[in-house]
Amino acid sequence: MTQVLLAGGCGFIGSHLADRICRRPDVTRLVVVDNLWTGRIENLAAVADPRVEFVQSDVETFSSETKFDEIYHLASPASPPWYMAQPLRTISANVVGALNLLGLLKPGGVIGYTSTSEVYGDPVITPQPETYRGSVDCTGPRSSYDESKRCVEAMLFEAHRVRGTRVKVVRLFNVYGPRTRPDDGRAVSNFITQALQGKPITIFGDGAQTRSWGHIDDIVAALERYFWLEGTEYPGPVNIGNDREISVLEVAEFIQSHFPKSPITFLPPVVQDPTNRRPDLTLCNQILPGWQCAIPYEEGVMLSVEWFRKEMLIPA
After folding, report:
1. Is the peptide bond before 263 cis (omega within 30 degrees of 0)?
2. What are the NAD-dependent epimerase/dehydratase domain coordinates in residue numbering (predicted)?
3. Can you give the pTM of this predicted structure?
């Protein structure tokens, strides 16, 4: 019987992972820890399951007499406006949080970590394989997020090498979909919420920067397979994302085509905004054969529009 700790389980991705964990008959207890900084208790549909316990706490200070069989660390903001506003808190959630969680892991247990494609910085090669060391700036305005993720990766792989700790590290690429905060601040959610309110759709820069957007349903299916279903002991890192590269402008134009009253406007570029992002999925295809981001962004965006419409109580 399995006891699981999920840090950041009220967040966008974490809450979807909680739903998947609750499908498992072997799980007798799921403790969800979230300080509700960027997460929302409304996201936690799984809380209705009697096996689920919600604890409102910072991941750095959470304590328990239980040693957990599985721990998943998703307790970090992922949107630049949020982590840039509180950089020290972001670093603490990732790094100090990981140190704390390692102490709560049962001997022989496994810790899973959602790292990010941001560890590649503004890449000079595309697509980006896991072996690429990145083009990063450890003193720049995005460094609180990028570098804390890189530090936790280093910590976990050192624990794996030195102590034999079982770890599983994924690098996620540009996830979007239901349960994103309306004020999240990233491109897809920004464009949708602006359009639904009849406001201009704002692009930072010229929109030529590319991303590889993966719908949450596809991404969480990959996490489920890698973290527990496949039984792999490969520690990672593993890229998980959509290898279809799309410009920010193209997404804005697609959304604007459904909301013609919302013009596209351009604002000054964000400092050090990466020019491109696309995962090399060669390793992912070996670890998770047959998996892919099956939901085209056009379909995924419209599914997201309907979710945001209901969330924001905007009539069709």
Report:
1. no
2. 4-226
3. 0.96
Instruction: Please report, for residues 240, 284, 308, the alpha-carbon distance to residue 130 in angstroms, rounded to integers and kept in the order given.
Output: 10, 10, 34
Domain spanning 2-175+213-240: CATH superfamily: NAD(P)-binding Rossmann-like Domain (3.40.50.720)
Range 51-78 average pLDDT:
97
Domain 177-211+244-274+295-311 part of CATH 2.40.128.110: no
CA-derived radius of gyration, the chain: 19
Separation between Cα atoms, residue 256 and residue 250, nearest integer Å: 10
Alpha-carbon distance 130 to 18, whole Å? 27
Mark whether 145 is an active-site residue.
yes
Cβ-based neighbour number of residue 226 at 10 Å: 22
pLDDT, mean of residues 271-284 = 95
Residues near 97 by Cβ (< 8 Å), separated by ≥ 6? 7, 58, 59, 60, 73, 75, 76
List 72, 145, 176, 297, catalytic entry = 145
Beta strands in the chain (DSSP E): 2-7, 27-34, 52-56, 68-73, 105-116, 166-172, 175-176, 201-204, 210-211, 214-215, 238-240, 246-247, 264-267
